[in-house]
Amino acid sequence: MPPRVDLEKCTGCGTCADVCPNEVFEIVDDKSQVIHPDDCTACEQCMMECPEEAITLEE
Questions:
Q1: Please, are residues 35 and 26 in contact by the beta-carbon 8 Å criterion?
Q2: What is the C-alpha separation between 21 and 7, in angstroms, rounded?
Q3: What are residue 5's phi and psi, to 5 degrees?
Q4: pTM for the full model?
Q5: Domain layout of the chain by residue ranges
Q6: CB 59 within 8 A of CB 18
């Protein structure tokens, strides 16, 4: 289940990219993008650390 970024909430701070152990995220045009969804292990670090609560895990 890959993560989903709510681009309306995302401020592009890069926290998700910094905490993700599998480099699933990249900041593109000042917003977080899921660039390697198949590498997500659903550890939820990105969800827990996102200050804007912009990340959810798809079921």
A1: yes
A2: 22
A3: -105, 125
A4: 0.90
A5: 3-53
A6: no
Looking at residue 16, what is its pLDDT?
98
| CATH of 3-53 given 3.40.50.620, 3.30.70.20, 3.40.50.150, 3.40.50.850 | 3.30.70.20
For every one of its 59 residues, what pLDDT tens digit does the chain have, with 9 covering 90 and above?
A: 899 999 999 999 999 999 999 999 999 999 999 999 999 999 999 999 999 999 999 77
**Helix, strand, coil in percent for the chain, rounding step 5:** 20, 25, 55
Residue type at position 22: N
The pair of structure tokens assigned to 16 is 């998700």
Tokens of 1: 């289940």
How confident is the model at residue 1, as a pLDDT? 80
